[in-house]
Write a structure and sequence with these properties.
By secondary structure, this protein is mainly β. Helices cover 8% and strands 46% of the residues. It has five helices and 19 strands. α1 (9-21) packs antiparallel against α3.
C-alpha cells in the first residue's frame, strides 16, 4: 500500500530540513509516524539535532503514514488520524553502588551498614503517547511507574498547537502554544534542566540538599501555558505562566480533589511567569546556540492545617535567571556536542523566615553544569560533565547533622555547596537500546569535602557507580 504524505507549509519545511540534515525523535512512535530512523532527530537519544528541534517546535505533527481523514463542505480538515496510534514503551533496568555504604538505622545501639548495591528491575517503566493528534496539534505524554515511589504517575507532558508560515525571502516562522507540566520540558535544546545531562540517573543514591526551583523543583506539580515563535530556525522566543497542579492533593474540607489550601506545601501564589530567548546559527555540519531563560515563583510553604491560605499571606519568592550555550558537530562518523548552563536563584524567604524555617530572610543559589559528548557512528561514545552548586549558608534550610539519624543528607556548616564530575560510557547495539556505565565523583557535598555531616561521612563516600540498560520500542 502506498504511503501518503500530508502536504502543508509545516511539513514541506520539515521535509526540506530532513533532506539537508540527514539526521526522528527518541520515542519510537515518532519514528513510525515520520517513517524516519531515530538518527533523523537525534545524535544519540534523547539529545536532539537541529532537525529534531524543528520537529518539536512544529508540534510533533510531521507524518508519513496513512491517515483517516474528514473534511467539511468547504474542504476544511475536521479529522486526521493515523491508522496506527503513536504509542511507545520505555524500560530502564539499573544497578547502583555507593563507594561507602549508608548507615543502617534499624538499631541505634548496634551500628551497622545498609545494603550497598541496589538493583532496580525496573527502575522506570513508561508508556508514551507521542505524535500527531490532529492537524497542527501533537503531544508528548509520558505515564511512568518508578520503583522508588512504587506508583504510576503522569510524567513529563507537552501538548502543542503549532503552525508554520513561509515569509518573504523564503524565511520561515514557526509559532505555537505549549501546555506542559514541567518548566523547560518544552524547550528545544538539551541545555535546560528537563532534558539536560545526565539523561538518566540512579534514584538509589544520596542526593545533595540544594537545587534551584527551575531545576526540577516543580516538575509534574504545575500546569503551564506558553506561547512561542521560532523565526527562520534561528531566533526563538517564548513567554508563559505556571499554576500549581499537584497530583494526589486533596482539599481538607471536601476530602476530594479541589482547591489547594494551606495543608499543601509550596503552592504557587497567582501565576508564575516563565520566559525563554535563544539564537541558533547553523553552518555546514555545525550549529551554535546561546540563550537565556528564567522564571519567578512565589510559593506559600504550607504543609500544616494552620498555614496561610494559598490566596494570601507571606510567600517565599524564587527568581531564577539562567544562561545556556550549545555547540554541535554532526559528521559522517563523529558526533560532538558541548553544552553548558548556569542558573542563578535569588530567594526572598518572607514566609519561611517569619516561621523560623530559614535562618536568613534571603538566600542565593547558583548551579553550573557543563559537559562534552562524543559518539562514533551513533554506536559508542561517552560524556564528561562537571557540576557545581554554591550558595549562601543557612543552618535551618541546610541543617546540621543529628547523630541519631546517621547524618547522611545533612550539612554540618549549613552550606549547600556541592561539586563534582560525571564520567559516562555508552554503547548502543541498536539505535533504540543503550547500555550505560556512569560514575559520579564528588569533591564537595553539602558544604564539605571531609566529614560534611559532622558524624564522619565524607563527600567521596557518596561517589556512585551506575549501570543502566535503557531501551524503548
Amino acid at each position: 500500500m502506498q504511503r501518503q504524505l500530508t502536504v502543508s507549509p509545516a511539513v514541506v519545511l520539515v521535509a526540506f530540513l530532513c533532506l539537508q540534515s540527514g539526521m526522528a525523535f527518541a520515542v519510537p512512535s515518532f519514528a513510525r509516524q515520520t517513517g524516519m530512523a531515530c538518527e533523523a532527530c537525534h545524535t544519540v537519544f534523547p539529545e536532539l539535532t537541529h532537525f529534531g528541534r524543528v520537529f518539536k517546535a512544529s508540534g510533533y505533527v510531521l507524518d508519513n503514514v496513512k491517515q483517516v481523514r474528514d473534511v467539511d463542505s468547504k474542504r476544511a480538515q475536521l479529522l486526521e488520524l493515523a491508522q496506527t496510534p503513536p504509542l511507545s514503551i520505555m524500560l530502564q533496568v539499573s544497578y547502583t553502588q555507593l563507594k561507602t555504604a549508608l548507615p543502617d538505622l534499624a538499631n541505634a545501639d548496634v551500628p551497622g551498614e545498609a545494603q550497598n548495591g541496589t538493583a532496580a528491575f525496573p527502575q522506570q517503566l513508561s508508556l508514551f503517547y507521542a505524535g500527531k493528534i490532529a492537524p497542527h496539534f501533537g503531544a508528548f505524554v509520558q505515564i511512568t511507574y518508578a520503583n522508588d515511589s512504587g506508583t504510576i504517575t503522569i510524567d513529563n507532558t507537552d501538548l502543542r498547537f503549532a503552525d508554520t508560515k513561509i515569509l518573504p525571502n523564503d524565511q520561515s516562522l514557526i509559532y505555537g502554544l505549549s501546555l506542559n507540566n514541567n518548566p523547560t520540558v518544552q524547550d528545544l535544546w538539551n541545555t535546560t534542566p528537563a532534558f539536560g545531562f545526565p539523561y538518566a540517573a540512579s534514584n538509589a543514591t544520596v542526593s545533595p540538599l540544594a537545587a534551584t526551583t527551575i531545576d526540577g523543583g516543580l516538575a509534574q506539580d504545575v500546569a503551564g501555558l506558553s506561547a512561542y515563535a521560532f523565526w527562520n530556525e534561528s531566533v526563538y522566543a517564548e513567554i508563559g505562566g505556571y499554576r500549581s497542579a499537584k497530583q494526589a492533593a486533596t482539599n481538607e474540607l471536601t476530602g476530594a480533589a479541589g482547591p489547594l489550601d494551606g495543608t499543601v506545601s509550596n503552592v504557587i501564589q497567582g501565576v508564575s511567569p516563565y520566559w525563554r530567548v535563544a539564537y541558533e546559527h547553523n553552518w555546514g555540519r555545525h550549529s551554535l546556540e546561546a540563550g537565556l531563560y528564567g522564571a519567578d515563583f512565589k510559593l506559600l510553604p504550607g504543609g500544616n492545617a494552620g498555614a496561610a491560605s494559598p490566596l494570601r499571606g507571606p510567600v517565599n519568592r524564587f527568581r531564577d535567571v539562567a544562561q545556556d550555550i550549545q555547540y554541535q558537530f554532526l559528521g559522517e562518523a563523529d558526533l560532538v556536542t558541548l553544552e553548558a548552563t548556569r542558573i542563578h536563584e535569588t530567594m526572598s524567604l518572607d514566609a519561611s523566615f517569619a516561621s523560623g524555617a530559614s535562618a536568613n530572610p534571603s538566600d542565593t543559589l547558583t548551579t553550573f553544569r557543563a559537559w562534552v559528548t562524543y559518539y562514533h557512528r551513533h554506536r559508542i561514545g561517552g560524556t564528561l560533565a562537571y557540576f557545581s552548586t554554591t550558595g549562601r549558608a543557612d543552618t535551618t534550610i541546610y541543617p546540621a547533622a543529628d547523630p541519631g539519624t546517621g547524618g547522611t543528607i545533612t550539612s554540618a556548616n549549613g552550606s549547600p555547596d556541592t561539586r563534582g564530575w560525571i564520567a559516562e560510557l555508552d554503547y548502543l547495539p541498536w539505535l533504540n537500546t543503550k547500555l550505560t556505565l556512569q560514575y559520579t565523583k564528588y569533591s564537595k557535598f553539602n558544604g564539605g569535602s571531609g566529614n560534611y555531616d559532622g558524624v564522619g561521612r565524607n563527600a567521596s563516600d557518596n561517589d556512585t557507580l551506575y549501570l543502566l540498560l535503557w531501551f524503548s520500542y
